[in-house]
Amino acid sequence: MDIGNAIKTCRIRRGLSQTKLAELSECSVSYLSLIEHNQRDITVSTLQRICHALHVPMGILLFLGSSQDEFGNISKELEAELAKNTLVLLSEPVQDKTE
Asked: Which UniProt keywords apply (predicted)?
């Protein structure tokens, strides 16, 4: 599981700096950096705050952080297509829920 890289990928796709994501998820920039480099384990509550700040469901983040051996019988082609489509969706602007 490479959850740190998944967070970094989503952060970049959303156009957020580490500083802004740390602020939105109520953690320090240094802690976020350590998470993104997989040098610190992340708590579920911190993961929830990061997902909320990124506007990304936790399941999507976990999917993006999964390795091939964690997918079981899913083909590499299907995995790649799912990841590609997910990243395209992450590139779209976040919808304002007040509209």
From this structure: DNA-binding
Amino acid of residue 16: L
Which distant-in-sequence residues (6+ apart) come within 8 Å of 73 by Cβ?
none
CA 99 to CA 91: how far, in whole Å?
A: 20
Residue among 83, 60, 81, 79 at smallest CA distance from 71: 79
DSSP string, 13-45: HTT--HHHHHHHTTS-HHHHHHHHTT-S---HH
Q: Which of 25, 29, 69 is nearest to 49 (CA)?
A: 25
Fold assignment, 3-90: 434 Repressor (Amino-terminal Domain) (1.10.260)
**pLDDT above 90 coverage of the chain, percent:** 54
Q: What is the pLDDT of residues 6-33, one digit of tens each?
A: 999 999 988 999 999 999 999 999 999 9
pTM of the model: 0.80
